[in-house]
Design goal:
Blueprint (H helix, E strand, L loop, with lengths): L5 H4 L4 E4 L5 H4 L4 E4 L2 H8 L8 E2 H11 L4 E2 L1 H13 L10 E2 L12 H11 L4 E4 L2 E4 L2 H4 L4
Parallel strand pairs: 2-4, 3-5
Antiparallel strand pairs: 1-2, 6-7
Length: 144
């Protein structure tokens, strides 16, 4: 069995057919974008201070730009974490949150650090039982 090299998959955007066994999961057939880290990094650099972008919106915009039906959620998350862990990256990864406004636990420092960074930019965060969520997601979500 050939070992998959995720880093190789990050170098360029690639369109692939949605595998038949995943059509139900994605709710469609057609093309899936395997996004490059560069594409994701460039897009999140456009999210202004005090605004947020959901990971699902990020994937939808990338898919539309590449005439695909969906963007791979696994590779999108993997790229976001790689950007977050790269000390040389200037992209504001912390401005990308889950579809419901929850923080992304996989980021360095976890949900508490992401919530703290967003608060410092004026984003209201609701915290309850160790969970942190953007309180005013509709108002703070960047217009696409």
């Amino acid at each position: 069995m050939v070992k998959r090299n995720i880093d190789e998959e990050f170098r360029s955007d690639v369109l692939v057919d949605i595998p038949k066994e995943h059509e139900r999961r994605f709710g469609c057939s057609g093309k899936m974008l395997k996004p490059s880290r560069k594409s994701i990094e460039a897009f999140i650099k456009s999210v202004p201070r005090g605004a947020v972008l959901t990971s699902s919106s990020l994937r939808a915009v990338l898919a539309k730009r590449h005439s695909a039906q969906v963007t791979c959620p696994f590779l999108t998350k993997r790229a976001l974490v790689a950007i977050a862990e790269d000390p040389k990256s200037k992209a504001p990864f912390w401005r990308v949150v889950m579809g419901n406004g929850d923080m992304i636990a996989a980021y360095p420092g976890g949900v508490t650090t992401q919530a703290k960074r967003l608060r410092s930019e004026g984003v209201r965060i609701a915290s309850k039982g160790g969970k942190h969520r953007v309180a005013d997601l509709r108002e703070r979500h960047v217009a696409l």
